[in-house]
Amino acid sequence: MKADAADQDQDALEALAGEYVLGTLPADQRAALAARMAHDPRLQRAVDAWEERLLALTRVAQPSTPSPRLWGRIERSLDERAGWFAKPSVAWWQRLRLWQGVSAVGIAASLVLTFLLLVSPAPSPRYLVVLVAPTDQAPGWVVQASDGRALELIPLGQDAVPDGMALQFWTKGSQWPAPVSLGLIKPGEQYRVPASSMPPLEPDQLFELTLEKAGGSPTGRPTGPVKFIGRAVKVI
Amino acid sequence: MNLPVTPFDFQACLAACAQGDRRALQALYTHEGARLLGVTRRIARDDATAEDIVHDAFIRIWTRAASFDPARGSARGWIYSITRHLALNHIRDVRCEVAFDESDIDAIGAVFPGADDEAWSGSSRIYRCLEQLQPSPQRCILHAYVDGCSHIEIASLLDAPLGTVKAWIKRSLKALRECMG
């Protein structure tokens, strides 16, 4: 009886994998199955076997010569990707769009600040920074620093980082020549920087989190996209 | 005297892509681009969309080449799977139901089961196993795999009840698995 149940289970798995490869699953089931495959080796094997079984059917489609522009488009996209990861042509602190985004931080900062001041009975930190996403200004992290004490980076939500990538924490004072790394952080986890390992904070000092390859930026400067950014506000 | 034609080495191509050799990707494009576009055109049913999908597929092949695992299947299969699933994801997201062009149906009829067609007279087991199915279930499998049709689209194409189409597909897949191993 047990063997029958196992057979039925295998049949159901094969049927699901077959319909996935055939293409007849609706969008939500396709997405769910693709996600499940990553941690279900049996399903993965069943899908792999179906891909190989049906592969020869691709020959039914007549070849179609691509337009002469297509390869050029692919090459340009590869160039852009290479540039994105290796050498941004303009440093982030010189990008206009970024500053336009950062200008909205003030509003978000004052809101979160009010909230934190109201709910927190502890002595007020001297500096506070709200880090927001440059795309939609959604607050993601708060930085607080007290006089001569460690700087704390506190998550406001749980965001994921793609495999093989990491979030790197940076800061830059207005007179500094370039940003300084404060280390790699884990999404959704609080992070502390000892006061001894960074220069004194100043008003308007910039903080940001960029997406870098695991292990951090190879150049010592931010190279990946900015995920969160904000300026230090002095708290009286 | 004809020189023997060297078959394209898909696996070596992926290995070179993983090393950052862009000429390898270009060689793949030159060799397989038209066939990959042919596959996506049948599913997307729109030339511009099909080229967008092939573009995305080549970027994905380039960025994921290092993750190809020969223990899981052939390199050629890996490349076609990436491309087909991008096309399928696209149409499942944007297309609910489609009004089929009669020429698409004719195209399928013309391909199956033309014995003189190289694709059908070849040694591929899938074709021999497909031939053992009844005509309607055969068309279900081909419309789904080749044209990216949903259950509902196939039901309307074959003028058959949706439940019947679903059952045909389920049974055909089981039969194909038993036939091919």
UniProtKB/TrEMBL annotation, chain A:
Transmembrane segments: 98-119
Principal subcellular localization: membrane
Membrane topology: Single-pass membrane protein
Pfam families listed in its UniProt record: RskA_C
Subcellular location: Cell membrane; Membrane
Domain of life: Bacteria
Residues in Anti-sigma K factor RskA C-terminal domain copies: 106-226
PANTHER family: ANTI-SIGMA-K FACTOR RSKA
Protein name, as recorded: Regulator of SigK
Automatic annotation (TrEMBL), chain B:
UniProt xrefs under Pfam families: Sigma70_r2 (PF04542), Sigma70_r4_2 (PF08281)
Record keywords: Sigma factor, Transcription, Transcription regulation
Keyword DNA-binding: no
Annotated ranges, domain RNA polymerase sigma factor 70 region 4 type: 125-176
Limits of the RNA polymerase sigma-70 region domain: 28-93
Entry keyword Transcription: yes
Sequence similarity: Belongs to the sigma-70 factor family. ECF subfamily.
NCBIfam families: PRK12537.1 (NF009189), sigma70-ECF (TIGR02937)
Protein name: Sigma-70 family RNA polymerase sigma factor
Organism annotation: Pseudomonas capeferrum
